[in-house]
Amino acid sequence: MNPNISQSISDLKPYLVAIRRKFHAMPELAFRETATQAAIAREMESAGLEVRGGIGQTGLTATVEGAGSGQTLLIRADVDGLPIQEATGLTFASSNGAMHACGHDGHIAVAIASAKLLSAMRDRLRGRVVFAFQPAEEVAKGALAMLEDGLFDDVRPDRVVGLHIWNQAPTGSVIVNRGTVFASADMFRIVVSGKGGHGALPHLAIDPVVAASQIVITAQTVVSREVPPGDMGVVTFGRLEGGIAPNVIADSVTLEGTFRSYRPEIRELIDSALARISSGAAETLRANADYSILAGVPAVVNDPEVAGHVARCAMEVVGESRVVEAPPVSLGDDMAEFLNRAPGCYFLLGGSRPGAEPHHNARFDFDESCLPIGVEVMVRSALDFLK
Question: What is the pLDDT of residues 158-168, one digit of tens each?
Answer without folding.
Answer: 999 999 999 99
